[in-house]
Structure formats: structure tokens, C-alpha cells
Amino acid sequence: MSWIGGKKALRELIVSVFPLYYERYIEVFGGGGWVLFHKPPGNDFEVYNDFNGLLTNLYRCVRERPDELIEALHFVLNSREDFDIVKDALARDSIESDVIKAAYFYQLIRYSYASGLTSFGSQPHDMWSNFPLIEQAHRRLSKVVIENKDFEKLIRQYDRPVSFFYLDPPYYETEKYYKNVGEGGFQEKDHIRLKDTLMNIEGKFLLSYNDCDFIREIYDAPNIQIESFTRINNIKQRYDNGAQFPEILVANYDMQERKENNPSQINLFEIENGL
């Protein structure tokens, strides 16, 4: 599912540097769930969290009531008028049924321009083609705990020596892009609060961020590893073919430990650097 800041293009890289051992996997800023759905399900205890209540309600309905959700989506119209009706109803928070609220929100995601939730996309889309995806997501989420909490409360609740947190917060100085998805309040003080929280946990964390001096400075600490990489900048591709977007991964463990234990494994950092 397309989402602001989604990790579709980076999911392989991110999963490849997960620690070798953990018993609890907690995705703190879940968003579209690209990493969770790409991660192989195992015997670990899994948690999906997002601060956006409409998003977590959608995931709960996919997990618990997929047939009702699909039924509510059967005869929706891909039209500007219906899009505006749905958007206004969600803005007023006037929908009592969790399933209808989830169906409206899913319409908004699928029919909005670039999944931005604000403007009608004016693009053809067959809603029925999503029904098999909803059913697959239902099976994948069957044992996943879904939370709707502030990151600090969530981390403190689930922190153990065997916990592993993957975090993809709103990137620094990009808050304006999240104003319609429940993260409009994520400011510089919250980036610092996130750092302070992570520096005091018992478990392990992996953090994805845009590469900038501020983030590098606040995570410049003993036993913290920072790896840089680039990806294609989809926005700039329109006028600058081949433009790259610099990003970093930050962790409190050795991100190369999987490679060291399996020398034949492909290492994406080496591919990025042409080694």
C-alpha cells in the first residue's frame, strides 16, 4: 500500500541488516508496513504501531474483519464527488462503524493523488483487484499486535533485552509532508526525544533517516553504527534523470553480523558502493 515515506524501495536492504537474534520485533512507525510484510514471519512476537488512528483501525479491520471490509468496498466509485464525501466524513469523525471508517480511509488512500489523502487522483483503479491483497494481509497480520501509541510509550512498554525495534520516523525537516497522516506534530524536539529514548533501551534498534548533519550529530555516540547509502529520488526523476537521495541507517549493533555469519550473502552496501 502506497504511503508517505514508505519503504518499498529499501525493504530488501533494511531486512538484510536485521540482527541475527531477537524474540520481539516491534515496528514503531509502521506506515504502509512495507518492512513488516517483507520480513519473513517466524516464531518472533511481532508488533505494528502507528500514531495515525485511521491507519491502525484499517489494519485491525484487515486482521479481524476482512470479509466485512471487502463487502464495504464492493461498490465504491472512483469519482471526485465520492472522494470528497469520504474525505469530509473522515474529517468530521462522524463514522461510528470501524469497518466503514476503514473502508473510507482505504478509498482515500487508493483514490488520492500519490496517496497524499487530500486531492483526488483522477486515475483509473480497479478496487476489486485489491481484495486478494486484503486477504493476504489478513493472513499475515493474524498474530501481529496492532498498537496506536506515541513512540516513547510504545518503546518503553515492549523493551526487553530480546526486543528489536525498527523505526522509520518522519524524516528531519520533512514534517510538512506528514500533516495529513497523523504526524504533523513531529518536530525537532521529537527527533531528540526519540534519540534519548533509544539510547536508554535494553534491546536493539535499527533506524532509517535522511542523511543530514543534525541526525548524524545527535546519534554520534559510542556503540552507535551509521551506514550511508543512496536511492533513486522519485520526485526529482521528473526533471533530473538519475538523481539520488542520500539516506542513512543507524543501529546500536553490528549491521554486518549477518554477512559475517554467512559470507555468501549478498551485501547491498557493497553493491551501492560498487565493490
UniProtKB/TrEMBL annotation:
What keywords is this UniProt entry annotated with? Methyltransferase, S-adenosyl-L-methionine, Transferase
* UniProt xrefs under Pfam families: MethyltransfD12 (PF02086)
Ranges in a coiled coil: none
The family classification in the record reads: Belongs to the N(4)/N(6)-methyltransferase family.
Origin organism is Tissierella pigra
- What class does this enzyme belong to in the EC scheme? transferase
Question: What processes does the entry annotate via GO biological process terms?
Answer: DNA restriction-modification system; methylation; mismatch repair
What this protein is called in its record is site-specific DNA-methyltransferase (adenine-specific)
Q: Which residues bind S-adenosyl-L-methionine?
A: W3, K7, D50, D168
Q: Which GO terms describe its molecular function?
A: S-adenosyl-L-methionine binding; sequence-specific DNA binding; site-specific DNA-methyltransferase (adenine-specific) activity
Which EC number(s) does the record attach to this protein?
2.1.1.72
SUPFAM superfamilies on file: S-adenosyl-L-methionine-dependent methyltransferases
- InterPro entries membership: Ade_MeTrfase_dom_2 (IPR023095), M_m6A_EcoRV (IPR012263), MeTrfase_D12 (IPR012327), SAM-dependent_MTases_sf (IPR029063)
Which reaction equation describes what this protein catalyses? a 2'-deoxyadenosine in DNA + S-adenosyl-L-methionine = an N(6)-methyl-2'-deoxyadenosine in DNA + S-adenosyl-L-homocysteine + H(+)
